[in-house]
Design goal:
Layout lengths: L19 E5 L2 H13 L5 E5 L2 H10 L6 E5 L6 H10 L6 E6 L4 H9 L4 E4 L4 H7 E2 L4 E2 L9 E7 L6 H14 L5 E5 L7 H4 L7 H7 L6 H7 L1 E3 L3 E4 L15 H12 L2 E6 L5 H9 L2 E6 L3 H15 L6 E7 L11 H8 L5 E3 L5 H8 L11 H13 L11 H8 L1
Parallel strand pairs: 1-2, 1-3, 3-4, 4-5, 8-12, 8-13, 9-11, 9-12, 13-14, 14-15
Antiparallel strand pairs: 6-7, 10-11
Helix pairs in contact: 1-5, 2-3, 6-15, 12-13
The structure holds adenosine-5'-triphosphate and magnesium ion.
Adenosine-5'-triphosphate binds next to helix 6 and helix 14.
């Protein structure tokens, strides 16, 4: 019997906006590519004269990345950093082919290292592009390192320290503001708070996927994810209390491998770090954020958990976040004492937000809080640590405007 209730989303077509997108520097190359797609009878294509910046602007508007992307490096002063920016708006699975004027082996090797599938030297011919892009098999013939999304785990030193609040808002920010594709996996199989914070209900998809791990494929996983907007996808479960845990060793690893192929970030909400599923989450995370409050118990647990997470082969980067889930009061552990006891600096201290966080959680909306160093600004900074982009500072209030309004 299926465990999926009727709220299971209807299978979405895995339609991409285009199979083949190309931005080239000159009309002659554009014409060659138009001849090529005509010959291959490719229906979903977009070919234009333009720079990498034009390609970035175009791709940032698409919900799904194309299967093949061809960009022209002619006139490009910093091709590697430009391609790095381009990678940020593409799904990891996109196969990128570059074009250029110089037969430069050094550049070619550097491009391959960052995941570009091939570098073709102009003049481009239909024959050359046919030898490179194999439309029938859906691959670029040159076999190179595949780019993959990153798995980021959030865990807490104790219950209720704000793991889900922080992780979900970072995920939401990455999806909405930085246009990354995000899969959020709530590992509390007995109903974590993440769905409630999105104003949604679980479809038990995570339970289904973990049970059927031997027959899951990208389409299966995609059907099971619940979309929130165009870039944030939720995988969660709401098992009955007392229902057996569907954990099977290796199941999470298989799921993460599939998710990392089509999402920039897979955010793992590790509800129970001590359990097998939590342990497996740490084994596959490239980065772990440990959320603590300013209590003696959290200070002690932070030491133990950091040791537990860091003592494994994948060597995840670990960062400490101190979250203030209650107002400042005497008797809390001072930040300086916390860091001294743990022997590590705190990456960010998240301020107590008296109203917006609670209201947002209950309405299933993002917190509408605009303090310059408030909750949202800290979420932005955490997201920027991940993307490597500098956070846009919160808009400063213009005092003159207030004066004018008083008149
Ligand atoms: N910075 C903050 N300011 C004010 N309230 C906060 C803050 N962070 C979290 N909260 C509140 O604290 C409560 C617990 O948060 P949350 O559910 O995210 O914790 P958790 O660590 O995921 O808990 P659990 O162990 O149940 O999974 C929520 O009501 C949330 O709104
Ligand atoms: Mg939680």
């Amino acid at each position: 019997m299926s465990t999926m209730p009727s709220i299971l989303p209807k299978p979405r077509s895995a339609a991409r906006a285009a199979d083949f997108v190309a931005f080239v520097a000159d009309k002659a190359t554009e014409q060659v590519l138009k001849n090529y797609v005509l010959e291959q009878a490719m229906p979903h294509t977009y070919i234009a004269v333009g720079t990498i910046d034009d390609a970035i602007a175009h791709l940032a508007k698409l919900d799904r990345s194309p299967q093949f992307l061809l960009v022209d490096l002619q006139g490009c002063v910093m091709p590697l950093s430009d391609l790095g920016r381009l990678a940020e708006v593409c799904e990891p699975s996109v196969q990128v082919v570059t074009l250029g004027e110089r037969n430069d082996v050094g550049l070619f090797r550097s491009l391959l290292k960052i995941g570009v599938r091939d570098y073709l030297v102009k003049p481009l011919t239909v024959e050359l592009i046919k030898r490179t892009v194999n439309v029938t098999d859906g691959v670029v013939n040159q076999v190179m390192l595949a780019r993959a999304g990153k798995t980021i785990a959030f865990a807490g030193t104790r219950g209720g320290v704000g793991v889900t609040t922080v992780a979900l808002n970072v995920a939401r920010h990455l999806a909405e503001e930085t246009h990354r594709r995000i899969a959020y996996v709530d590992l509390n199989l007995y109903s974590g708070a993440a769905n409630c914070m999105l104003g949604a209900q679980s479809n038990n998809g995570l339970f289904d996927v973990l049970q059927n791990v031997h027959r899951i494929d990208p389409q299966y996983v995609e059907r099971t994810l619940v979309p929130h907007g165009t870039r944030l996808f939720m995988l969660s479960a709401e098992l009955d209390y007392g229902a057996p845990h569907p954990y099977e060793p290796g199941a999470l690893a298989r799921l993460l491998a599939l998710l990392c192929d089509s999402f920039h970030y897979v955010i793992l909400d590790v509800a129970a770090p001590a359990e097998a599923l939590g342990n497996e989450a740490f084994d596959h995370a490239s980065r772990v954020y440990l959320v603590a409050d300013r209590s003696v118990h959290s200070t002690r647990e932070a030491v133990r958990l950091l040791r537990f997470v860091e003592d494994r082969d994948n060597n995840p980067i670990t960062s400490l976040l101190v979250n203030n889930v209650s107002p400042a009061s005497a008797g809390k552990v001072e930040l300086a004492d916390f860091t001294a006891a743990v022997g590590r600096s705190v990456l960010h201290e998240i301020p107590y937000e008296a109203k917006a966080v609670t209201v947002a959680e209950n309405l299933g909306e993002p917190p509408r809080e605009r303090a310059p160093n408030g909750f949202n600004q800290t979420v932005r900074r955490i997201a920027s640590d991940l993307t490597g982009q500098r956070p846009a500072e919160a808009p400063k209030r213009a005092p003159r405007f207030r004066l004018l309004r008083k008149r």
